[in-house]
Amino acid sequence: MKENENNEKNVSFIQKLFTCCSENSEDNDLINKEESYNSIIYRAKKELENEISLFPAGTIRDEEKNKIDFTKDGLLKYILNLQNLFYQNLYNDNNLKISKRNISNITEEIPLIRFEIIKNKSYFKKVPNIQKIIDVMTKPELRIKWDDNLIEYKTYEKLNNNSEIIKIITKKQKDLIPEKEFYDKRIRIYKDKAYYFFSSSIPDNNNSISFDYEKGKNILCIMIIKEDKDNFYFDCFNQIDLNIDFTDNFIKTFLPNKTKVFFEEYFEFINSF
Questions:
Q1: Long-range contacts made by residues 92-96, C-beta under 8 angstroms, separation at least 24?
Q2: Distance CA 107, CA 68 (A)
């Protein structure tokens, strides 16, 4: 399957390259004198990037198909649209806001929960750049060092377009949630001085995977990280099937403290890293 996908991408790139060259040809010259060969190659790659899926077809679940456009521009549009929807506010203090939306275009059985966090840069001994902020959150070799909720967190398979499948095993959460094992496709996109992180579980019909713990399903996980001169801003969307009832009372009583502890450990590690 991968060989066929690579062949299709190579053919598409050649076609795109020919189109870009043709657009810049003059009197049947292959390359316009005002545009270098390298710049044409760059244009062809960038145009193709917005036409092909960020993930192989076999990693996309049926309920995601026709609901999320997994091209780069399509996924960014989907993420930005989520930010503009209405959410019911359930918790709000100075630096943490938690809200939910019961209706999602992927599933209506589990609420989409939104976390908005602000961290003032004065907290840090040395203010990190945004690259370090995203790396400590998403790179397996760093995340496993500070996230006490994890048993295992590692790259399972490298995919295409800088995407990958991550294997995650989470610890038992009191008596509410047993250990869970996830296999999630994911990607990071940097655009307009912000990081956009997307992940979701791969289909259940992958027979090459055997689970040692109870299977978990990440329906949707998105994180947007931005900054200004004073603060880092985190806008997170989570929709995870944990076989529990996400009532308003559960969200209000369990999630605020859990979220605060999670980010405290995260920021402390950044300060020591």
A1: 93/256, 94/118, 95/119, 96/256, 96/259, 96/260, 96/263
A2: 13
Q: Set out the domains of the chain in order of their start, with CATH numbers.
A: 2-52 (no CATH), 72-272 (3.30.530.20)
Query: What secondary structure does DSSP assign to 196-229, as a single string?
Result: EEEEEEPPTT-TT---SSEE-EEEEEEEEEEE-S
Taking the model in full, what pTM does it have?
0.82
Tell the residue number behind the tokens 């990607």, with chain if given: 187
Q: Yes or no: say if 102 and 233 are a contact pair by the CB < 8 Å rule.
A: no
Secondary structure percentages of the chain, helix, strand, coil, to 5: 35, 30, 35
Contacts of 41 (CB under 8 A, 6+ apart): 17
Q: What is the Cα–Cα distance from 221 to 70, expressed in whole angstroms?
A: 14
Distance from C-alpha of 254 to C-alpha of 106, rounded to nearest angstrom: 25
Q: What is the pLDDT of residues 171-205, one digit of tens each?
A: 998 777 899 999 999 999 999 999 999 999 999 88
Encode pLDDT of 46-70 as tens digits.
555 667 889 999 999 999 998 999 9
